[in-house]
Amino acid sequence: MAEAVDLRVVGTTPVRPDGVDKVTGRAQFGADLNMPNMLHGRILRSPHAHARIKRVDLSKALAMQGVYAAVSGADFPMLASGEVSGEAGGDLADIARNVMARDKALYHGHAVAAVAATSLEVAEQALDAIEVDYEVLPPVLDVLEAMAADATLLDEQCFTKGLSETPDKPSNIAAMVKLARGDLEAGFAAADVVVEGEYRIPMAHQGYIEPHACTATVNEEGKATVWCCTQGHFDFRTMTAHILGCKIADLKFIASEIGGGFGGKTVVYLEPVAVMLSKKAGRPVKLVMTREEVFRATGPTSGSVVRVKVGARKDGRITAAKAWLAYEAGGLAGAPVGPGVMSIFAPYDLDNFLVEGYEVLVNKPKVAAYRAPGAPQSMHAMEVALDDIARQLDMDPLDLRLRNAADEGTQAPYGPKFPPIGFKACIEAAKKHPNYLAQVPEGAGRGVAAGFWFNIGMQSSAEVRINEDGSVVVMEGNPDIGGSRASMCLMAAETLGVPYEQVKTYVGDTESTGYCMVTGGSRTTFATGMAVVRACEDIIAECKARAAATWGVDKDQVEWQDGTAVPAPGVNADVNPLSLADLAASASATGGPILGKASLNAQGAGASFSINFADLKVDKETGAVEVLSYTAIQDAGKAIHPAYVEGQMQGGAAQGIGWALNEEYIYDQDGVMENAGFLDYRMPVASDLPMIDTEIVEVPNPSHPYGVRGVGETPIVAPLGVAANAVRDAIGIRINDLPMSPPRILAALDAA
Amino acid sequence: MSKVHVQTTINGDQVEFLCVPQQTMLEALRDVLGKLGTKEGCGTGDCGACTIMLDGRLVCSCLMLAAEAEGQELTTIEGIAGPDGLHVLQRKFLEHAALQCGICTPGFIVAAKALLDRNPNPDEGAIRYWLAGNLCRCTGYDKIVRAVQDAAKELAYQA
Predict the structure, then answer these.
(1) What pLDDT score does A86 carry?
(2) Over the range A312-346, which residues count as b (16 or more CB within 10 Å of their CB) and which as e?
(3) In the predicted model, what is the mean pLDDT of residues A214-225?
(4) What is the complex's ipTM, to 2 decimals?
(5) Residue A57: which CATH number?
(6) pLDDT in tens, A439-460
(7) Which residues of B touch A643 (CB under 8 A)?
(8) In angstroms, what separates the C-alpha of A209 from chain B's closest C-alpha?
(9) CA dist list (Å): A298 to A205, A304, A329, A620
(10) Which of A454, A464, A474, A473 is nearest to A523 (CA)?
(11) Which residues of A touch B142 (CB under 8 A)?
(12) How distant, in Å, are the alpha carbons of A29, A603, B50, B75 from that of B36?
């Protein structure tokens, strides 16, 4: 821990190294690469939400002038089940079937075939020439109906995982997850108040502004190069290799700049198809999704039904909590019900609880990670229940949470004892915050809720190179989705003792740097940052050795101070200190170029907690909700670049507000999404929001050299409960379901 | 189908190009003219990532036909920085960390410049409503609004 040391640059907010290219239009995103001799690809998508694919005939498309390749499910190997780990994880066989349907189309928009042609227009015409025979099946769209014993099955081979005995009959329930502790019955018996409710939230999309895009080129030796927007090009390479049955060494992945992801770009959609088309065509192939395709065919997050029952004593202490979760997986397994189960009670120190979660197949797009995947849905229910308890006990909602807050040493519901965490510090900060001390404006309501995310570490690599003039190159492998290059530069500059401007960070492709797991799980600044710090320490050790050799002293007689090798105190060497630039200039005489490297599997990602509160006003004529003020308080461990930490908190708050108030997948009875565009899928715009006030709490994570905890995901969790509780406060009616869009609010007002 | 010959001015340069009649200005910029700074987020005029200036008016280039550029003056993100370097707005976006992923940034900067050209001293509400046609999913708009406010202040000071 560098905590005791005065930090020079960590904690400052310099301009990011990739910034100028992004404000001038120079930065190259996924769709910005065009290659010589390139073809344009398009994907044919199922017009049915549920259908058996009887026959796909590509011959008429292939016969067309200007069409160079066409593929369908039959062109891809059938994969046996096999897990990919981590936030981007899931079953490879399911990911493969999502990339290209085989025997069945499982949602409206599921990819069924693809073509590559000389122009987009020709490619579109070729799609029309592909013949597909479907046997249309009834779509299964409601998560509870899908769980019924007599429900139409999406997958006859789906036997629920996670039960003590494998069931003898298939169902739409892909998995069950359960956590329990203590004596639930005794806990509820000891309660003075018990609240319960059922809460429903439809699917919502990550809503990144950049549609998925990639360009692939395969040469005559079978070597493929793929340029794409991704949160993790190494993991995209792994998935693509498995899906195509080719060698990892035959695939080079280059991450473009990425126009948002929020978890949605941790899994492949286009890349294996583009490689397959390019291989068949012998020419580069570019695939770019339309916005409509993004909505219909890429992962939203799970729609959910959550039931929760919580009991508490008069003093606010929770005596028992019980929850039941059903999460939509979409057409193929992969719902974040595990994290939903693990997170619902995570902020609280509970003696007695039971939570069961079910992952359910429905004929909707296969879900993908979305910022704290699974937590917002379940924690919304718990935070609403706590609000109801606070009302019944006439207790301040912050005091209620403080009374039950997890702290260092608390055994988390999901197992381990918490190391130092900042939940209580966040609650205390909220209690003192001027926005909380201020009166709720006339006619408005205030809501409070907590947020949480586990955060992850896992594998990362970094190399640090010293140029001939002493300038520093950091090379790592995590796509920069929100300023991580700046954080890497700050940590490297701090560790090396050089100015920020002396360091530049680059995101290498899969052949120019070592493996880094996806930018996800709020892991990059923590895990890759740790690798960068270790690589810089490697540089320092090397520099000290070279200075020692230069001066003819022992290595341990050299110290590193402010980017300079100096003799240790008491070492009577009559020498001039050697700066990084001096050492670089003399490198040819001291052993050649100066390099440092590190690779690690980072452990101890500290959990990040938050408290958010807001004042909202409801227009009783229109049902519209106005956000008057919003305050986000979160433990960052240590904010390396505080402006980008604030940005995560503000952006997550805005996404959560959108999810709570307006965003939802709306389906017709045939399973066709009715609002597959930004006009009707209503994300917040600038005029929908006020300034979002932030306060960064810093309870250092002892597992990171500068105390970092991931900060990216926690921010989206609390806003759902905040909005629900503020609307309850404003209109005196509890609305259990999200989004609280104008029609739903008006219906609630009319019913009251 | 015969192509349309278009003569126009983009960022002060005389430009000639051929397009098919149904081609959008966004497609012409990106696919014909190589001006890739203008981004496509939706293709339906809902996100503002493709915002350009057309004779002083703010337009979504995905909703404009390329042939309509005939005889007009267009400004794209590539035309915002001058010979002296970054425009104040570009500098302020960087200083305020007003971008995270950066895909919406070209559209926001073009739109914000159009606002300040018209109204050098907009209040927060004016900024928020002017920029309501541009979607940003990363920032929650807070730092974007502050960057525009700060740019307005600096431009007023220079004037």
Answers:
(1) 53
(2) beeebbbbbbbbbbbbbbbbbbbbbbbbbbbbbbb
(3) 97
(4) 0.98
(5) 3.90.1170.50
(6) 999 999 999 999 999 999 999 9
(7) 96-97, 143
(8) 5
(9) 9, 18, 12, 36
(10) A454
(11) 646, 650, 689, 691-692
(12) 9, 41, 10, 13
Question: Which pLDDT does position A85 carry in this prediction?
Answer: 57
Alpha-helical segments (H) within B23-104? 25-27, 88-95
Contacts of B51 in chain A (CB under 8 A): none
E strand segments, A502-543: 503-507
Same domain for A633 and A547, yes or no, is no
| Closest partner CB to A209 (pick from B30, B103, B128) | B103
Candidates A405, A426, A397, A431; CA nearest to A721 is A397
Domain that holds residue A365: 300-455+606-751
Query: Is the Cβ of B117 closer than 8 Å to some Cβ of chain A?
Result: no
Q: How confident is the model over A493-506, as a mean pLDDT?
A: 98
Q: Residue A482 and residue B138: Cβ atoms within 8 Å? A: yes
Q: Report, in angstroms and rounded to the nearest whole number, the Rg of chain B calculated over CA atoms.
A: 16
| Residues A645 and A636: beta-carbon distance below 8 Å | yes
Same fold, B4-79 and B88-158: no
Chain B residue with minimum CA distance to A644: B97
**Whether residues A450 and A463 fall in one domain:** no
* pLDDT score at A318: 98
Encode pLDDT of A596-632 as tens digits.
999 999 999 999 999 999 999 999 999 999 999 999 9
Rounded-to-integer distance, Cα A720 and Cα A662, Å:
11
Alpha carbon distance A379, A389 (integer Å): 15
Q: Which two tokens stand for residue A400?
A: 């209620």
Q: B88-158 has which fold?
A: DNA polymerase; domain 1 (1.10.150)
Alpha helices of A370-451 — where are they, by DSSP H? Answer: 375-393, 397-404, 423-432, 434-437
CATH 3.10.20.30 holds for B4-79 = yes
**Helix A92-99 and helix A233-244, axial crossing angle in degrees, nearest 10:** 80
Strands A625-635, A608-618: pairing is: antiparallel
Is-contact A382 A400, C-beta < 8 A?
A: no
- Whether pLDDT at A518 is above 50: yes
pLDDT confidence tier of residue A2, bands split at 50, 70 and 90: very low
Record: contact A483-B49, CB cut-off 8 A: no
> Cβ–Cβ of B46/A646 closer than 8 Å?
no
Query: Residue A3 and residue A371: Cα distance in Å, rounded?
Result: 29
Phi and psi at residue B80, to the nearest 5°: -85, -45
Q: What is the model's pLDDT at position A573?
A: 78
Do A500 and A587 fall into the same domain?
Answer: yes
**DSSP one-letter code for A298:** S
DSSP state of B96: T
Residues of chain B with pLDDT under 70: 1, 159
Question: Which of A325-329, A390-394, A572-576, B134-138 has the weakest average pLDDT?
Answer: A572-576
Residue A41, amino acid: G
Residue A300 has pLDDT above 60, yes or no: yes
- Whether residues A80 and A127 share a domain: the answer is yes
Do B99 and A20 count as a contact with CB atoms less than 8 A apart?
no
Interface membership of B13 toward A (CB under 8 Å): no
* Residue where a domain stops, chosen among A246, A277, A297: A297
**A434 shares a domain with A325:** yes
Q: Is residue A497 part of a domain?
A: yes
